[in-house]
Acyl-CoA transferase
Amino acid sequence: MGDYRVKITDGPLSDLRVIEMGHVIAAPMCGALLSDFGADVIKIERPGQGDMLRVLSARAKDGVGVWWKTLARNKRLVALDWKTEDGREVLRRLVENAQVLIENFRPGVLERAGLAPEVLHGWNPDLVIVRISGYGQTGPRSSWPGFGRAGEAMSGLAHITGFADNAPMHPGFPAADSTTGLMAAYGAMMALHAVQNGSARGQVVDLAIFEPLLRLIDYHVPTRTGAGLPVDRNGLQAPNSYAPAGVFRARDGKWVTISAGSAATGRRLLEAAGGKEWAEQPQFQSLDGFAEHMDEIVDRLGAFVAQHDAQKAIDIFQAHDAVAAMVYDVDDILADPQIAARGDIVGVEGDDTKVVGPVPKLDKTPGRLRWLGRRELGADSRAVLEELGYDAGKIDKLTENGTVAEPKR
């Protein structure tokens, strides 16, 4: 499974050292995305406790949480109490030798510990500090606690998800946390580029958990402000019902999703399901016409899919160059030849747990899974401290007084 004790030396980000002081999902996702492409991510956990993410999911056969395995992948693990005087000195040395620090504490936690950005930048003026919180570092709600579901609610995602006559729905995965991790990695890379091209030194990347989804949904704000239209839950249809879309049950019980992005692609769906004569009717020459007849369209598309097994219906749509796809469960994902051909599911030798591989795919400097998150709290504490210049005696002393933890030898 690789040697965790040596500094990573391959990947396009192998010259970066990242300190991850985060916990649970958003900050660890940011660190994992950077680690996939070679960054030396040093994850700091509290001695005796560790990240709650360790116990926040189902356990693999070896007893390690599967969520931990994937979000702590490729990371070196240091157990450090950075609130003590000795721990602060270790953290200072880490900061002096790093390019990025990621944290997702409630605003004020670092400041109360004497670790405000100005202090960290005093130690390392070029440090990029990624700060993730429920509502951001500024504004009237900045001190409020906030988890991902609050972000999904505030962004508008929950409001536009579900059926009009039912309650708003949250997605089936931590969308706000995960997209925040992705946006945080993007922000870190922009800030690092600013350091590299001389346009700025180290700076703070400030992310509220609701903001990435707010940005990625995007269309609801201009729809309301520009067109004066509300954006509400619309079931399985496309936003505002401007283009044909839906999820329909096939004869064999499987589900098929279909969609179109223009009047031309919409007519292909209609031709596949109802013939050329139906598709070429005058009302289907524009998206406005589609919107006016959406109930009829949905009923006929649903009836067509119900007459066929799912794959047969998809084949007919494909023959008309129309977009249709099977709704996959996880077993479908693991069995799909396209996903396999892309190398999207990966693992490491000696561990049955598989995870989603690095994305995106770079043809010259691709990402790589080196190891999965490990059970041992502080697995790399000694190795990292040695790299920082601590001798064996000093490390033993820090371990004995509880500042640092490492696995029992």
In short: Residues 1-8 have pLDDT under 50 and may be disordered. The first strand starts at residue 17 and ends at 20. Residues 175-197 form the longest helix (23 residues). Residues 193 and 254 are 47 Å apart (CA to CA).
